TrEMBL record:
Lineage: Eukaryota, Fungi, Dikarya, Ascomycota, Pezizomycotina
EC number: 1.1.1.49
Naturally occurring in which organism (per UniProt): Orbilia javanica
One GO term (biological process): glucose metabolic process
Name of this protein: Glucose-6-phosphate 1-dehydrogenase
The Glucose-6-phosphate dehydrogenase C-terminal domain, residue ranges: 188-476
Function: Catalyzes the rate-limiting step of the oxidative pentose-phosphate pathway, which represents a route for the dissimilation of carbohydrates besides glycolysis. The main function of this enzyme is to provide reducing power (NADPH) and pentose phosphates for fatty acid and nucleic acid synthesis.
UniProt signal peptide: none
Length: 480
């Protein structure tokens, strides 16, 4: 664990991610005394700006609702320094090195965390220049990297290969920010700390699993980036597949990072590549009232793009626990609401005494409003014997109202400071998930006749969605 004398270098410090996520998360850690003692934060980017301008930008996404928080922000900003430089020139990185050495003068160690909040195009160059010019001589080094990790198995491998000569797997922390979300961190406890879940967590009792990601807004100016990747690469191959592996993995031998990640990899390796008949793709059109633009109306989106902004796939796991149970992943932009949830639908109860009684469902809501609830049947209180579908409900806001839920990035940066890899993506895990998705992605990229179905901005997705879900055995309550 890096307890003291650490410098955190944020590369890409003038970008959106750094502004919206990295610096606010670092401030959150500072406020709660989780940053190492004697910690400095160096922002590095191409934009030429003076210290004041940099501080103004850092502040712009940090809220200070109370006086004490305002004071904490002052002490946080005192830790921050900015260095402007190119991403492909040694002189720039030597200049960064001079600043780092000035900060570290008199320290017994020069521990450094490099946080790469960078576009993929400069990623390799920066990692090489850092190794050459800024690798600490007497301290621990950690390299935090952000997706996209390539576009398919081949390009992801290439990226990995480029890092390999310079950085060990031990030094690399690949972020998938979903792994830092409170409810996601709870999944292993829910599964393995509760005997009744453990006992029913298999193909004998579970009919199907749905993992859903919905956003109520479209690309809104971010179309250049998005169009190159699409919803499958942007959300599914990383965030949703992470949720799937944690839901499906066997019990790890321990909570150690390698034990956990070994089990995750094993699940992924038991999954066949996605078959194109198990997929629907969509792209949003204008909203029904015409007030919201279609994907293709976004100026940053190339004309005639076939990029999917919605996708649903059914995936399978060929092992004893899950064989035959569909895992339905759904992700979409410009839908009717914001939501990320896992819905585990159990099988029908043995027939005999009940006719058409709804199925149990365990719903784990990742966001918004973290909750775990179970839909279960109960007798309607009163003199009749009527049954009613009701909830066993753990809604965090009610049960843990006095506890603050940290931002995913706070939690992950803290893990990196502690040297805990459990919630970061290992290289073989990345390969395994790309292997499952790459053929589908190539098929979609290479076949111009495959066009996404249109759905209105603000709707639930393409109209065929419910039929798709039902075809894998999901029973809507109104079907019983
Ligand atoms: C990012 C995607 O990884 O995750 C975005 O690039 C998406 O397109 C975001 O909006 C969703 O994250 P969250 O934490 O808001 O659910």
């Amino acid at each position: 664990e890096l307890k003291e004398h650490t410098t955190i270098v944020v590369l890409g410090a003038s970008g959106d991610l750094a502004k919206k996520k990295t610096f606010p998360a670092l401030f959150g850690l500072h406020r709660n005394n989780y940053l190492p003692k004697d910690c400095k934060i160096v922002g590095y980017a191409r934009t030429k700006m003076d210290h004041e301008e940099f501080i103004r930008r850092v502040k712009s996404n940090i809220k200070t609702p109370t006086k004490p928080i305002e004071e904490q922000l002052v002490t946080f900003l005192e830790k921050c320094v900015y260095v402007a430089g190119q991403y492909d020139q040694d002189e720039s990185f030597q200049n960064l090195e001079a600043t780092l050495q000035k900060i570290e003068a008199g320290r017994p160690h020069n521990h450094r965390i490099f946080y790469m909040a960078l576009p993929p195009s400069v990623f390799i160059s920066v990692s090489q220049h850092l190794k050459k010019n800024n690798y600490p001589k007497n301290g621990i080094v950690r390299l935090i990297v952000e997706k996209p990790f390539g576009k398919d198995l081949e390009s992801s491998r290439k990226l990995q290969k480029a890092l390999e000569p310079d950085w060990t797997e031990e030094e690399i922390y690949r972020i998938d920010h979903y792994l830092g979300k409170e409810m996601v961190k709870n999944l292993l406890i829910l599964r393995f700390g509760n005997e009744f879940f453990g006992a029913t967590w298999n193909r004998r009792h579970i009919s199907n699993v749905q993992i859903t990601f919905k956003e109520p807004f479209g690309t809104e100016g971010r179309g250049g980036y998005f169009d190159e990747f699409g919803i499958i690469r942007d959300v599914m191959q990383n965030h949703l597949i992470q949720l799937l592996t944690i839901i499906a993995m066997e019990r790890p031998l321990s909570f150690s990072a390698e034990d956990i990640r070994d089990e995750k990899v094993r699940v992924l390796r038991a999954m066949p590549q996605i078959a194109t008949e198990n997929v629907i793709i969509g792209q949003y059109g204008k909203s029904e009232d015409g007030s919201k633009p279609a994907y293709l109306d976004d100026d940053t989106v190339p004309k005639g793009s076939r990029c999917p902004t919605f996708c649903a796939v059914a995936m399978f796991i060929k092992n004893e626990r899950w064989d035959g149970v569909p895992f339905i992943l759904k992700a979409g932009k410009a839908l009717n609401e914001q939501k990320a949830e896992i819905r585990i639908q159990f099988k029908d109860v043995t027939s005999g005494i009940f006719k058409d009684i709804p199925r149990n469902e365990l719903v784990i809501r990742v966001q918004p409003d973290e909750a775990v609830y179970i839909k279960m049947n109960s007798k309607l209180p009163g003199l009749s014997t009527q049954t009613v579908l009701t909830d066993l409900d753990l809604t965090y806001k009610r049960r843990f109202s006095d506890l603050k839920i940290p931002e995913a990035y706070e939690s992950l940066i803290l893990d990196a400071i502690k040297g805990d890899h459990s919630n970061f993506v290992r290289d073989d895990e990345l390969d395994a998930s790309w292997r499952i998705f790459s053929p589908l992605l190539h098929y979609l990229d290479e076949n111009p006749e495959v066009v996404p179905m249109s759905y209105p901005y603000g709707s639930r997705g393409p109209p065929v969605l419910d039929d798709f879900t039902s075809s894998y055995g999901y029973k809507f309550n109104d079907q019983v």
